[in-house]
Amino acid sequence: EKLYRSMLGNDPTPRAVRPVAGPARPPVILPPDLADFTGRAAPLSRLHTLMTAERARIVLVTGPVGIGKTSLAVHAATLAERRFPGGRIFLNARTEQGAARSSRSVLQDLVRFAGVAVPDGCDCDELAGRWQHWLMDRQVLLVLDDVCDSTVLQAVLPLSGGSMVLATTRRHIAGLEYAARVELAPMEASEAVVLLSRIIGAVRVAADQPAALRIVRSVGLSPLAVRTVGAKLAALPYLRLSELAARLEDPDQLLNEMCTAQSGMRSRLAAGLADLANPERSALQRLASIATPRFTQEQALTVLSEVPDRVRRLLESLIEVNAVTAPTAEVTAHAAVYELPMLLRCYVRELAAG
């Protein structure tokens, strides 16, 4: 459990893991898979195809904070043992402070985990060369979590052989035309209810199925949010599902009901805003003032008080970092409907209220 928290947090080098002694033993450095991993059949099937039939060199799993990107990547990597006999390695691409790690820092960890001897003072190019040489005759899966941009991906990307990088990111990273992409959406309501039942017990959920459905919808069908409310219900067995559902349906109380000292929910949401420049932060705050999470371009024009081209650029910038979700199909501009992720919207409104 300590290792899992380390890897899902911002600790780039899990302290509970030691590099293998040498290349004869393939390194397997993964967080434990979630025992109650639920749903996600379509993205898992797509990842399996990319790992086997299409054999992509790099796959980006994208989506907003709390949508389950890391859990999906770890689950897929756990299932891919036969496809990657050369090893499976997990690394966080950010520092403890949330900043992007340098390519040299990531490469240092990779060659160490691979058991490759590296002289002191080795520069980034030398590290990259030794990493590529080690990969040459191996089939290795590198899971790189919470990537900020393309720099580190280009430094570690396998140049030959059957290895692959599976990266999770909040951003729609450009400049990687050869990358396959898996966009992770909120869970299906039925999946979210099943996940809740696995946390608090099927009998408790079956006793009030409508309330369970209200709960998972109130938190935006986010796996992280469902796990958070599930942990609260598990800790409070006397709390009726209908009572919690009513509390969560009050947008002004949603985060207070979810954010305990242990959940770290607000810190996760704050991390989702960390990469935004001031104009995007200001725009997000104004968009969050709209009465509902969904809004049209006309509503955006009204609250942002900017010319249409400027509004379009702001929306595209927010879509790029998954702070706003875009239409899933081409539509005319006046008919497009955008949406703020539920929990991020509540957090931004809370910040605006002071």
Radius of gyration: 21 Å
Shape verdict: globular
Overall number of strands: 8
**Order of helix and strand elements from N to C terminus:** HEHEHEHHEHEEHHHHHHHHEHHEH
Trace the largest sheet across and list its strands: 1-3-4-5-2-6
Please explain how this structure is put together.
- The protein has helices spanning 2-8, 41-51, 69-79, 103-113, 124-135, 150-156, 189-200, 202-206, 209-218, 223-235, 241-248, 254-258, 265-273, 278-288, 297-304, 308-320, 342-353, and strands spanning 28-29, 58-62, 87-92, 140-145, 164-169, 180-183, 294-296, 337-339.
- It is an alpha/beta fold and 354 residues long.
- The strands form two sheets. Strands 1-3-4-5-2-6 form a six-stranded parallel sheet, sandwiched between helices. A two-stranded antiparallel sheet has the order 7-8.
- Helix 7 crosses helix 9 (209-218) and helix 14 (278-288) crosses helix 16.
- The protein is globular.
- Mean pLDDT is 86; it is low at 1-23.
Task: Provide the fold topology.
Blueprint lengths: L1 H7 L19 E2 L11 H11 L6 E5 L6 H11 L7 E6 L10 H11 L10 H12 L4 E6 L4 H7 L7 E6 L10 E4 L5 H12 L1 H5 L2 H10 L4 H13 L5 H8 L5 H5 L6 H9 L4 H11 L5 E3 H8 L3 H13 L16 E3 L2 H12 L1
Parallel strand pairs: 1-3, 2-5, 2-6, 3-4, 4-5
Antiparallel strand pairs: 7-8
Helix pairs in contact: 4-5, 7-9, 7-10, 9-11, 14-16
List keywords for this structure.
354 residues, alpha/beta, disordered N terminus
Give a short synopsis of this structure.
The chain is of the alpha/beta class. It is built from 17 helices and eight strands.
